[in-house]
Design a protein that fits this description.
The structure is a homodimer of 309-residue chains. Chain A has 309 residues and is α/β, with parallel strands linked by helices. Helix content of chain A is 35%, strand content 24%. The N and C termini of chain A lie far apart (53 Å). The model of chain A has no long low-confidence stretch (mean pLDDT 95).
């Protein structure tokens, strides 16, 4: 099945207590596509870069069999740049700079050959643009979208219009709370379901992820990593692993969605093991499979003789 | 098998956004014993109260088949009183007052008939007193202990002496981090294991709990409650459910420990559904069993065809 990813392509400068990298390939679409490429190829990616986008970055995308047709190159503009610094508590991050550059006037144009795409993942971009993507598609089977606090507080009306068109919303816990205006995460998810998406997936970082529908709840543990080098892109890698598995299996039954959440968690757990996208340079599908199985052991228990008095 | 619980007995005044109760039965030993009583009876409880401890409170303990022999009544003192106020975010709590009263000079005396107890749960009291309890016992098979930030920062030397004598330490995530001086929870748990306990259980509230040994990790989800009325005692109810199940089955294999974590999570999830100990007034063993099984469904997924390209 075909997968379309729309979002940002960026050059990131990242500082963590463990080191610093400058102008490394980043952006939501990049992480989503890279993670999804473990399940489905090629990946259709729509995004924009400047004339300064390095040839090696383009080659990295090609290594993951990202189709480059949908990447617009604005020759006389610079590529979107983002800088962030993580604290000793890696859950806390300061944004050092955001230079939108070519991304500022991003207006996603879906190539003719992509319009019949069956699965879509909308990275965290302006909800107006997310909608514009969907308007250009014939009839995708499943649309997964991400958003962030910036749009929740800054463009709530447009975001709510877009939410009506999503099948699955993937957000982190604070975004879910903010979007629903509700502290309890279960209630918050149900509030979001009333806004449109049939399924809400809440990413909780070191605490795992939950998938919530009107009828069910599935709780995925986090993979117990002792060394996390760089959390950048983990949420997007999660979304990519999730939609990648769904697109590969062409099965969006509840049971398969649960597996997809575990594959999302698997890809996110690899993502944070090194800086930026570095871990994906040599990550094999065998490693992905093995960790998927380890996830099962993490939360498995035998009921045994459960008689109580 | 026999179970001894040592800790505080208190009269709590609790304010949450959903209401207020005054002088309701509380204290770590009370919650631990009440939760454990769903698995093993009678519960041997050692604690101290004042002459003002209400007859109804004593009767409540008897209802849960708590043996009252070990409860010391200091006639001319008042019972330990604690007052707390929870914020809209129930994870945030202000202590309004702490009147130690009779508890201030608590010196646990283990009745002769309790000294052969096989399972022990030490509630959160001065680590010096926790040790004094153990010195009076012949040879318990498993000792579970709790502690808190007050002792970690205030009496670290004594706490570390006590840790050497515990088989299982049950703490919340911030306590684990503080005790080990390490932000990463997995590393923190391993640091604590080097201090003595073979098993560390980290309670993460709405994010569930993890059991960590030198070799394994087990992640238990939290039960998805939409309405949490009062978090007071949830951690102690967890410890009580955990040790209660172990004592009932007399099996501390790793596999059974995992079940015990789920029973702990089960009892904690009931605890927060009403104020103080109110939920336990009519909680049946059938409800406990049912929720235990629901926990399994929460994190269960079928591996299916997990082939990746």
């Amino acid at each position: 099945m075909s997968l379309l990813v729309v979002g940002s392509l960026a050059l990131d400068t990242i500082e963590t207590p463990f080191g610093r990298v400058e102008n490394t390939l980043g952006g939501s679409a990049t992480y989503i596509a890279t993670a999804a490429s473990y399940f489905v190829k090629p990946i259709r990616l729509v995004g924009v870069v400047g004339g300064d986008f390095p040839k090696e970055a383009m080659q990295r995308l090609e290594t993951h069999e990202v189709d480059l047709e949908g990447i617009e190159v604005v020759k006389d503009a610079k590529t979107f740049r983002w800088g962030g610094r993580y604290h000793f508590d890696l859950n806390v991050r300061d944004t050092l700079f955001t230079e939108l550059n070519a991304f500022q006037h991003f207006n996603p144009k879906i190539p003719e050959s992509y319009r019949n795409t069956t699965y879509v993942c909308l990275g965290n971009i302006d909800p107006v643009l997310q909608r514009r993507v969907l308007e250009q598609l014939s009839k995708p089977r499943l649309v997964v979208g991400d958003t962030m606090n910036f749009w929740i507080s800054g463009n709530n009306v447009e975001l709510k219009r877009t939410l009506k068109l999503l099948d699955v919303l993937v957000v982190n816990d604070s975004e879910a709370r903010q979007l629903a205006g509700e502290h309890n995460l279960i209630k918050a998810a149900k509030g979001i379901i009333r806004l449109g998406p049939k399924i809400v997936i809440i990413k909780k970082g070191e605490h795992g992820a939950v998938l919530i529908t009107e009828r069910t709840l599935f709780s995925a543990p986090a993979y117990p990593l002792e060394d996390i080098y760089d959390p950048t892109g983990a949420g997007d890698a999660f979304a990519g692993g999730f939609i990648g598995w769904i697109a590969r299996t062409d099965d969006f039954s509840e049971e398969n969605m649960k597996r997809a959440v575990i594959y999302g968690s698997t890809l996110a757990s690899f993502c944070v093991e090194r800086f930026g996208l570095d871990r994906f340079k040599d990550l094999t599908t065998l490693e992905v499979k093995d960790r998927f199985h380890e996830f099962r052991e993490l939360s498995r228990f035998e009921e045994g003789d459960s008689s109580t008095r």
